[in-house]
Amino acid sequence: MTEEKVARLAALRAAKQTLPQAGTATTQPIEAAFNDRPAMTLQTFVLVLFAMGGGALTAAVVVPMWFPALSASLLGPSPKAFWYLSRSSALIAYILVWLSMVFGLLMTNKLARLWPSGPTAFMLHQHTSLLGLGFALFHALILLGDRYIGYTIAQLVIPFASTSYQPLWVGLGQLAFYGLALVGLSFYAKQWIGRTMWRAIHFLSFALFGLALAHGIASGSDSSELWVRALYWLTGSTVCWLTIYRVAVAYLSRPLKHQSAAQTKM
C-alpha cells in the first residue's frame, strides 16, 4: 500500500469521526428544545393564568358589584378605563407572542448561538409564550367591565359568539388564543405526544401568529396610530424574514447533508 493511499484512508477515517460531531452540534438547540424540561413548571403556568384571569374578573365584575363607589372613583367620569386596559394588555400579549416566535426561530436557524445562546433562547421562547397567554386572557376578560359594548362571558370565550364589534376579526383572535394555548401546553405534554406531533403543533404557531396580527390590525381601536402601525410592520416583517431565512438555510443545507452521508459510507 503506497503512502498516498494510507494518507487518503486516514483522511476518510478522520472525516467519519468529525462529521457526526458537527451534525450533533448544529442540531443541539432543537434537541434541547425537545428534551429539556419546561422552563416554567405547569403549576406556575396555571397560577399565572389564574392570577391574570382572576385579576381581570375582580377588576371588571367584583369591584363594581361590591364596591360601586370605589369603582366610580377609580374609573372617573369617563367609563373607558376597561377598554384602555384591554387594549394595553392586548399589545403586551402580542409583543410577548412575537418575542416567542423570534426566539423560536433563532433556535431553529442556529442564530441563537450568536445571541443569546441555545438554552437561553429556549427559556425565553417558553416564558414569553406562556406570559403572552396570560396577558391575552386578561385582555379578553377585562372587557366584562366595559359597558359600551356589554360583552358577556360566553361572548368572550366562544369564538364568533359576539356580533357587536368586528365579529370576524374578534373571532379569529379568539381562535388564535386557543391555538396558542395548545402550543403552550405542548411544552408539558411533549414526552407523551412524541417529537413528530410536538413539531407539528409548533408549526401551527406561524398561522396563529398571523391570526393574532390580523386580529390586532383589524379590530384594534388604536391601529390607526402611527406607532401601532409601525409596531405591526416591524414585528410582522421580522417573523417573515426569519422564516424565509430558516427555509433557505434548510433548503441549501440538503446537498451538504447528502454529501456528508456519501462520504461517511465511503
Q: Explain this structure to me?
A:
With 266 residues, this protein is mainly alpha-helical. The chain has one domain (26-256). The chain is built from nine helices and no strands. The chain has helices spanning 3-26, 28-35, 42-66, 68-75, 81-108, 118-141, 153-157, 167-219, 226-265. Helix 3 (42-66) runs parallel beside helix 6 (118-141) and helix 5 packs across helix 8 (167-219).
Strand content: under 5%
Termini gap: 18 Å
For the largest beta-sheet, the strand count, sense and barrel status come to: none
Large-scale geometry: elongated
Taking all Cα atoms into account, the compactness measure Rg is: 24 Å
Uncertain runs = 15-32
Structural class: mainly alpha
